[in-house]
Structure formats: structure tokens, C-alpha cells
UniProtKB/TrEMBL annotation:
GO molecular function: DNA binding
SMART domains found in the cross-reference section: SpoVT_AbrB
Organism of origin: Muricoccus roseus
Superkingdom of origin organism: Bacteria
Keyword entries, A-Z: DNA-binding
Family: Belongs to the VapB family.
Sequence ranges assigned to domain SpoVT-AbrB in this UniProt record: 11-51
PANTHER family: ANTITOXIN VAPB1, SSL1300 PROTEIN
The name this protein goes by in its record: Antitoxin VapB
Length: 82
């Protein structure tokens, strides 16, 4: 999927049985097989369905190349609060 913001394009609407449809040009292609559609005034907004699974999100991240520094932070002293 292209990362740049392509210029707006005029497209044709058509009927697919009882539904109105639009063919999405390749430069506006969304990832996956599903999308969320919502309305904002007379505008329609299409968004890709994002995974709701934390494990899938973490799997999509690249490993860090950077090593984190050691932090000198002693544990707090245990206190009896009862």
C-alpha cells in the first residue's frame, strides 16, 4: 500500500445488486479484506479494520536494534502498613 497521499480522483459509482459501490483505484487501496465505513456529513469515510488482538499488534512490531541502559533504581523499602 502506498504511503504517500495521492491527489483526489473522481470515480464512478455503480450498482451491485441492491448496494451502491465504488471501484477503489490502486493508489487508494486499503490493506486486508474488510473495512469500516462511516458518514461525516456528506462524506463517507473508509478505514481498514485493525486487529483488536494485542498479540497481533506486538507481532507486527520490528525488534529494537538499540540496547537499553541499566538503571540504578533500588527497590523501595518494605513497610508494614497494618
Amino acid at each position: 500500500m502506498p504511503q504517500s497521499h495521492p491527489a483526489p480522483r473522481q470515480v464512478r459509482l455503480f450498482r451491485n445488486n441492491r448496494n451502491q459501490a465504488v471501484r477503489i483505484p490502486v493508489e487508494f487501496e486499503l490493506p486486508g479484506n474488510e473495512a469500516i465505513i462511516s458518514r461525516d456529513g456528506d462524506r463517507l469515510i473508509l478505514e481498514p479494520v485493525r486487529s483488536k488482538n494485542l498479540s497481533a499488534l506486538l507481532d507486527s512490531w520490528e525488534p529494537m536494534e538499540e540496547t537499553l541502559p541499566d538503571i540504578e533504581d533500588p527497590l523501595p523499602v518494605a513497610r508494614d502498613i497494618f
